C-alpha cells in the first residue's frame, strides 16, 4: 500500500525495511515482496511519482531537475580544478528516485567493469558472465514509439523481452541521424559503428537504448514498485525522511542497527521502526553515506567534529566518490532541423505535447540523444608514460561522446536565436576521487558534496583529447553542409586554451558512485562486503550506486539495476 503518513503503517516492525524507494530500493522491495511471507516497509523522503507529467514524458525529463520539488537540489562545493565553480548536482527525490528524473539512457557498461568488480571484491559472482543473467529478468525490450524498422540498430539476441522494465530504441528520428551514421563510416578507424553495447562491448558509437516503453518513461517506480504496491505485505511511506539508523543491540560482538528513525521534516516528531531481518539502505550515493555518518558510522575524526558519537569507526564512509565529468561542446548549425526552436516556442511545444498525450509519439516520446559512443585514448598517448591506464580493461573506454540535436549546456543558457549541435564529451575512467561529508549533525542540512573533478593529470589530459576528438567528428565531410562554427572557446587549439575551456564549463553527468564501496570481506578499506553487508555492524545491507567501487562504462542506472537484482537474490538466498 502507498501510505502518506506514519499513522497508516500496519505497525512498527517489519521483516525488511528499505530506506529509499529509488532505483535500487524498489528492486529490493519488489523482489523481497514477491514472496508473500516477507513483510516489507519502504521509506521514501520524496513524493509519489503518480500524476507527475514530466516524469512520464521522456523529453521533459530534464525539466525535473534542478530546483524543483522532485530534486534534492544539491550544489557541489567549490571545485578547485574548475575555477572554483559550484553547480547543481541533481538527485531524484520522488518514488523511483533518480530513475524517475534521469535522462533515460539505459545500458550496462563494459564486461570489463564487472570483471574488475569481481577482481576488486574477490567475489566471482560479480563477474559479467554471472551478472549478465540478471538482464533477463530486468529488461523487456519493446518496439520504439514510432514503430520504425530497427534492423541493424541493435542485436536482439543480447536482450530480453521477458523482464520487468520496458526499454527501446529511439522513438523519433532526427535529420542529423544519417550524418552521425555516415561519420562512423567516413571516420571508421576513430569512430567505428557499434551495433549494441548490451553484450559488454562498449567501444564505438551506436543507437541509444532508453528506459522508455510505449513512448513513456520506465522508472523503478512504474515497474518494480508498481508490481507489488497493492500487495498486503508491502507498505510504502512517502514524505518519510530517514534521519538515522537506530542501534538495537549487539549481535556476535558487533553493533546491530535494526532500527530506522524518520520524520516528515525538521519540525515534525520522529518515528522509529524496526526490522526483524534486515535494514536495506538504498538512499543513493549521497543519501546512504549521509545516513551512515548521522548514525555514528564513519570516520571517527570527522564525526567527532560534528559532535556525533562514533559507533563504527570506518574512514571509508563517504570517500572514494567517482563520477563522469560532462563537457558540453556546442556548434552553430544551418537550417531549422535542430530542436532549438521547439524549446523556444511554447506553441510548437504545446503541439508536441498534444501529440504525446494523444498517441505517445512524436519528438517528446524520445530522450535527449539518439546516438552515443565510448572511445579510448590511443595506446601510445604520452599520458600513459606517467599514469597506468585507468580503464577497466583494454576493451573499456576513457571517454564518451553523446550527440544531441539542440543546445545542451548546463553552464550557458540556450541562445535566443540559432540552431545548434551538441557533442557532449564525458570522462569515463576518472582517476580523481571525491568525498561526501556531513556539514553538521543536523540530518536536514545538505551534506558537503565534493566530486573533486579533474584533480589529476590523467583526467585533464583525457578531457583535452576528447575535445580534439569531438572536433574531428564534427569536421567530417558528413557535416560540411550543416556545421557552421564552434561556439565560444570550443575553438581553442592549444593545450592551455583547451584546458581553460574545459575548466570553465565542465559539470557532472550525474553518475556518482563509490561512497559506500564494496571491498573484499576482510579488507581494511571499504564499507560493505561482497554480499553488501555493512562492515563492522550487523543487520544492515547497502544496495545502491554507492557500492560500486568505481564508475563503470555506462550511464549508471543499468549497472545499479543489475547490482540490485543480484543483491535481491543474495538476500533471498538464491
Ligand atoms: C538528472 C539525472 C540524469 C541522469 N541521467 C541518467 C541516464 O540518462 N541514464 C542512466 O543510466 N543514469 C542516469 N542518471 C544516473 C542514475 O539515474 C543513477 O545512477 C541511479 O538512478 C542511482 O540509483 P540509486 O538507487 O543509487 O539512487 P536513487 O535512484 O537516487 O535513489 C535514492 C532514493 O533514496 C531516497 N532518499 C535519499 N535520502 C533519503 C533519506 N534520508 N530518507 C528517505 N529517503 C531518502 C531518494 O529520495 C531516492 O528516492 C541520471 C541521474 C540524474 C539525477
Automatic annotation (TrEMBL):
Q: Where is the protein localized?
A: Secreted
The protein's matches in Pfam families, at most eight in alphabetical order, are given as:
GMC_oxred_C (PF05199), GMC_oxred_N (PF00732)
In the UniProt record, which is one GO cellular component term? extracellular region
| Residues annotated as catalytic | 511, 555
- What keywords sit in the KW lines? FAD, Flavoprotein, Secreted, Signal
Binding sites annotated in the UniProt record for FAD:
102-105, 242
Q: Which InterPro entries match?
A: FAD/NAD-bd_sf (IPR036188), GMC_OxRdtase (IPR012132), GMC_OxRdtase_N (IPR000172), GMC_OxRtase_C (IPR007867)
Major place of residence: secreted
For this protein, the record's Gene3D superfamilies field holds: FAD/NAD(P)-binding domain, Glucose Oxidase, domain 3
As one GO molecular function, the record gives: flavin adenine dinucleotide binding
The cofactor(s) it depends on are: FAD
- Which residues are in the Glucose-methanol-choline oxidoreductase N-terminal domain? 284-298
Q: Does the keyword rRNA-binding apply?
A: no
Q: What is its EC number?
A: 1.1.99.29
Which reaction(s) are listed as its catalytic activity?
A: pyranose + acceptor = pyranos-3-ulose + reduced acceptor; pyranose + acceptor = pyranos-2-ulose + reduced acceptor; a pyranoside + acceptor = a pyranosid-3-ulose + reduced acceptor; pyranose + acceptor = pyranos-2,3-diulose + reduced acceptor
* Protein's job: Catalyzes the single-oxidation or sequential double oxidation reaction of carbohydrates primarily at carbon-2 and/or carbon-3 with the concomitant reduction of the flavin. Accepts only a narrow range of electron acceptors such as substituted benzoquinones and complexed metal ions and reacts extremely slowly with O(2) as acceptor.
Q: Which family does it belong to?
A: Belongs to the GMC oxidoreductase family.
Q: How does it assemble?
A: Monomer.
Q: What is this protein called?
A: pyranose dehydrogenase (acceptor)
Q: Which organism is it from?
A: Candolleomyces aberdarensis
The organism that produces this protein has a lineage beginning with: Eukaryota, Fungi, Dikarya, Basidiomycota, Agaricomycotina
Amino acid at each position: 500500500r502507498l501510505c502518506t503518513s506514519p499513522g497508516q503503517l500496519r505497525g512498527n516492525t517489519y521483516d525488511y525495511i528499505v530506506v529509499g524507494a529509488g532505483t535500487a530500493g524498489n528492486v529490493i522491495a519488489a523482489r523481497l515482496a514477491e514472496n508473500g511471507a516477507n513483510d516489507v516497509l519502504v521509506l521514501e523522503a520524496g513524493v509519489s511519482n503518480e500524476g507527475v507529467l514530466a516524469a512520464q514524458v521522456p523529453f521533459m525529463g530534464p525539466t525535473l531537475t534542478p530546483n524543483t520539488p522532485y530534486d534534492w537540489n544539491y550544489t557541489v562545493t567549490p571545485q578547485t580544478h574548475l575555477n572554483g565553480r559550484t553547480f547543481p548536482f541533481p538527485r531524484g527525490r520522488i518514488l523511483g528516485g533518480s530513475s524517475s528524473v534521469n535522462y533515460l539512457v539505459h545500458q550496462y557498461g563494459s564486461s570489463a567493469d564487472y570483471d574488475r568488480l569481481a577482481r576488486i571484491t574477490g567475489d566471482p559472482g560479480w563477474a559479467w558472465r554471472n551478472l549478465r543473467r540478471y538482464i533477463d529478468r530486468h529488461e523487456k525490450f519493446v518496439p520504439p514509439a514510432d514503430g520504425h524498422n530497427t534492423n541493424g540498430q541493435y542485436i536482439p539476441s543480447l536482450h530480453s523481452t521477458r523482464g520487468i522494465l520496458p526499454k527501446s530504441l529511439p522513438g523519433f528520428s532526427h535529420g542529423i541521424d544519417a550524418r552521425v551514421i555516415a561519420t562512423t563510416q567516413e571516420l571508421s578507424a576513430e569512430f567505428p559503428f557499434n551495433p549494441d553495447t548490451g553484450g559488454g562491448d562498449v567501444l564505438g558509437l551506436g543507437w541509444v537504448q532508453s528506459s522508455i516503453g510505449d513512448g513513456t518513461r520506465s522508472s523503478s517506480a512504474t515497474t518494480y514498485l508498481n508490481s507489488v504496491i497493492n500487495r498486503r505485505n508491502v507498505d510504502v511511506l512517502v514524505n518519510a525522511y530517514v534521519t538515522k539508523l537506530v542501534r538495537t543491540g549487539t549481535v556476535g560482538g558487533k553493533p546491530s542497527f535494526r532500527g530506522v528513525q524518520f520524520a516528515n521534516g525538521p519540525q515534525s516528531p520522529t518515528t522509529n521502526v524496526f526490522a526483524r531481518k534486515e535494514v536495506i539502505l538504498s538512499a543513493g550515493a549521497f543519501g546512504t553515506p549521509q545516513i551512515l555518518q548521522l548514525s555514528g558510522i564513519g570516520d571517527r575524526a570527522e564525526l567527532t567534529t560534528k559532535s556525533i558519537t562514533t559507533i563504527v569507526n570506518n574512514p571509508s564512509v563517504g570517500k572514494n566518490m567517482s563520477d563522469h565529468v560532462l563537457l558540453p561542446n556546442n556548434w552553430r548549425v544551418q537550417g531549422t532541423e535542430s530542436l532549438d526552436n521547439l524549446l523556444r516556442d511554447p506553441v510548437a511545444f504545446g503541439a508536441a505535447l498534444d501529440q504525446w498525450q494523444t498517441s505517445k509519439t512524436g519528438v517528446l516520446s524520445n530522450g535527449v540523444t539518439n546516438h552515443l559512443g565510448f572511445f579510448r585514448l590511443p595506446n601510445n598517448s604520452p599520458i600513459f608514460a606517467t599514469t597506468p591506464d585507468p580503464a577497466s580493461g583494454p576493451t573499456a573506454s576513457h571517454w564518451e561522446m553523446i550527440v544531441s540535436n539542440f543546445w545542451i549546456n548546463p553552464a550557458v543558457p540556450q541562445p535566443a536565436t540559432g540552431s545548434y549541435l551538441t557533442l557532449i564529451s564525458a570522462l569515463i575512467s576518472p582517476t580523481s576521487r571525491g568525498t561526501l561529508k556531513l556539514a553538521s549533525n543536523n540530518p536536514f542540512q545538505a551534506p558537503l558534496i565534493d566530486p573533486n573533478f579533474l584533480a589529476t593529470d590523467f583526467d585533464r589530459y583525457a578531457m583535452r583529447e576528447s575535445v580534439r576528438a569531438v572536433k574531428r567528428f564534427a569536421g567530417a565531410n558528413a557535416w560540411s553542409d550543416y556545421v557552421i562554427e564552434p561556439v565560444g572557446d570550443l575553438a581553442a587549439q592549444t593545450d592551455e586554451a583547451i584546458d581553460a575551456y574545459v575548466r570553465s564549463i565542465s559539470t557532472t553527468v550525474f553518475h556518482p558512485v563509490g561512497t559506500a564501496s564494496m571491498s573484499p570481506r576482510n579488507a581494511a578499506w571499504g564499507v560493505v562486503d561482497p554480499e553488501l553487508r555493512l562492515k563492522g555492524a550487523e543487520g544492515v545491507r547497502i544496495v545502491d550506486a554507492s557500492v560500486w567501487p568505481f564508475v563503470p562504462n555506462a550511464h549508471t542506472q543499468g549497472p545499479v539495476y543489475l547490482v540490485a537484482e543480484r543483491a535481491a537474490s543474495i538476500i533471498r538466498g538464491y
